């Protein structure tokens, strides 16, 4: 178990109590300890489905008829699996300070150690192990369980594949993320707005996009396309319309050829009808 300790400083500011109780630090320490075990378990799962990835990659290579690196396609698909798995753990607000977090400062006269010139710190009284938490603790965190997040809705006109045609305009997910003021957190838009349709560009799509300078050549890096209309609707919502960080001129929308639109329509239909 990770225990937090108080450190009482002596000297002119001996009345201050410094507490090292950042919950994120504690959880990340635990994560670091468990990470090797998680990695082993995750690799075991991927090996279980490896034959499916290999078969799909070979099929892509045969159909595209280009110099396709199947190992990169498989790695890209695996990264996409991990990226989408984040939806199982929707983000919530973490309070670092506020009503649920109190920082206690000792007042002069409360302890012997607060007296100027005192050579010794007052010995802390031992509390019974079963005693309930008292106001002596410098930090307290709310233990309330957060309500379960609403299910992702993939229905209505926005999830009708017929809305996509050769005149539809699209934006890179990274640009939409930046346009809505979330550029500091890569991929934040996919988590915050999981109900948005996003299309994972394959090798042929990325080659077409790179040749027309819509994006840089990314190799095995994932690239998502979003519908410009959806992002414009978000920018006009109450959540973003008065946000100073929103910069819609960052989007740089573009159209795509019909063969790519048809792939997007199939992807939208598959995502809409998939189990959430």
From TrEMBL:
<dbReference type="Pfam" id="PF21229">
    <property type="entry name" value="TdIF1_2nd"/>
</dbReference>
<comment type="subunit">
    <text>Monomer and homodimer. A minor proportion may form homotrimers. Interacts with ZNF541. Interacts with the terminal deoxynucleotidyltransferase DNTT. Interacts with TRERF1. Identified in a histone deacetylase complex that contains DNTTIP1, HDAC1 and MIDEAS; this complex assembles into a tetramer that contains four copies of each protein chain. Component of a histone deacetylase complex containing DNTTIP1, ZNF541, HDAC1 and HDAC2. Identified in a complex with KCTD19, HDAC1, HDAC2 and ZNF541.</text>
</comment>
<feature type="domain" description="TdIF1 C-terminal">
    <location>
        <begin position="168"/>
        <end position="264"/>
    </location>
</feature>
<feature type="region of interest" description="Disordered">
    <location>
        <begin position="96"/>
        <end position="166"/>
    </location>
</feature>
<dbReference type="InterPro" id="IPR049121">
    <property type="entry name" value="TdIF1_C"/>
</dbReference>
<keyword id="KW-0539">Nucleus</keyword>
<protein>
    <recommendedName>
        <fullName>Deoxynucleotidyltransferase terminal-interacting protein 1</fullName>
    </recommendedName>
</protein>
<dbReference type="InterPro" id="IPR041384">
    <property type="entry name" value="DNTTIP1_dimer"/>
</dbReference>
<keyword id="KW-0238">DNA-binding</keyword>
<dbReference type="InterPro" id="IPR026064">
    <property type="entry name" value="TdIF1"/>
</dbReference>
<dbReference type="GO" id="GO:0005634">
    <property type="term" value="C:nucleus"/>
</dbReference>
<comment type="function">
    <text>Increases DNTT terminal deoxynucleotidyltransferase activity (in vitro). Also acts as a transcriptional regulator, binding to the consensus sequence 5'-GNTGCATG-3' following an AT-tract. Associates with RAB20 promoter and positively regulates its transcription. Binds DNA and nucleosomes; may recruit HDAC1 complexes to nucleosomes or naked DNA.</text>
</comment>
<dbReference type="GO" id="GO:0031491">
    <property type="term" value="F:nucleosome binding"/>
</dbReference>
<dbReference type="Pfam" id="PF18192">
    <property type="entry name" value="DNTTIP1_dimer"/>
</dbReference>
<feature type="compositionally biased region" description="Basic and acidic residues">
    <location>
        <begin position="147"/>
        <end position="163"/>
    </location>
</feature>
<feature type="domain" description="DNTTIP1 dimerisation">
    <location>
        <begin position="26"/>
        <end position="90"/>
    </location>
</feature>
<dbReference type="GO" id="GO:0003677">
    <property type="term" value="F:DNA binding"/>
</dbReference>
């Amino acid at each position: 178990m990770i225990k937090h300790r108080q450190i009482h400083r002596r000297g002119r500011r001996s009345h201050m109590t410094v507490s090292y109780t950042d919950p994120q630090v504690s959880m990340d320490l635990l994560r670091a300890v468990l990470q090797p075990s998680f990695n082993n378990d995750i690799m075991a799962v991927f090996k279980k489905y490896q034959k499916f990835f290999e078969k799909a990659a070979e099929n892509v290579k045969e159909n595209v008829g280009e110099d396709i690196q199947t190992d990169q396609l498989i790695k890209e698909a695996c990264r996409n699996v991990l990226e989408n798995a984040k939806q199982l753990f929707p983000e919530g607000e973490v309070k670092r300070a506020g009503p649920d977090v109190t920082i206690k400062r000792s007042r002069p006269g409360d302890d012997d150690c607060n007296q100027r010139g005192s050579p010794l710190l007052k010995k802390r009284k031992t509390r019974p192990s079963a005693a309930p938490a008292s106001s002596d603790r410098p930090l307290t965190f709310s233990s309330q369980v957060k309500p379960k997040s609403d299910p992702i809705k993939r229905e209505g006109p926005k999830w009708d594949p017929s809305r996509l045609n050769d005149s539809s305009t699209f934006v890179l997910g990274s640009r939409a993320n930046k346009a809505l003021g979330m550029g500091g957190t890569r991929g934040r838009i996919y988590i915050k707005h999981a109900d948005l349709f996003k299309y994972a560009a394959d090798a042929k799509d990325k080659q077409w996009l790179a040749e027309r300078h819509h994006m840089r050549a990314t190799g095995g890096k994932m690239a998502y396309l979003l519908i410009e209309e959806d992002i414009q609707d978000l920018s006009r919502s109450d959540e973003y319309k008065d946000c100073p960080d929103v910069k819609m001129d960052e989007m740089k929308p573009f159209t795509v050829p019909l063969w790519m639109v048809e792939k997007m329509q199939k992807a939208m239909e598959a995502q809409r009808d998939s189990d959430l």
